[in-house]
C-alpha cells in the first residue's frame, strides 16, 4: 500500500517510478518466500511434536 502512495508522487520521473516499483516487487517476493520458510518450519515442528 505504501508503494502505491509513493508511486503516485513519482509519475514525473519514469526511472524513479520503475525503480521503486521493481524494488518493492522484489521485497514483496522475498518476504513471501521468507514467510513460507517460517511457516514450513513451524508446521514441521508441530508435526514432529516440538513445541516452543
Shape: rod-shaped
- Approximate helicity band: over 70%
Number of helices: 2
Strand content: under 5%
pLDDT below 50 for ≥5 consecutive residues: which ranges?
Answer: none
Q: What's the main sheet like?
A: none
Give the tally of β-strands. Answer: 0
Radius of gyration: 18 Å
Mean pLDDT: 85
* Secondary-structure-derived class: mainly alpha
Secondary-structure element string = HH
Describe this structure in words.
- This protein has two helices and no strands.
- The mean pLDDT is about 85.
- The longest helix is centred in the middle third of the chain and has 34 residues, at about 15-45.
- About 0% of the residues are buried.
- The chain has about 50 residues and is mostly helical.
- The protein has helices spanning about 1-10, 15-45.
Task: Please render the helix and strand layout as text.
Layout: H1 2-9, H2 14-47
Task: Provide a short characterization of the protein structure.
With 52 residues, the chain is mainly alpha-helical. The chain contains two helices and no strands.
Distinctive features:
52 residues; mainly alpha; rod-shaped
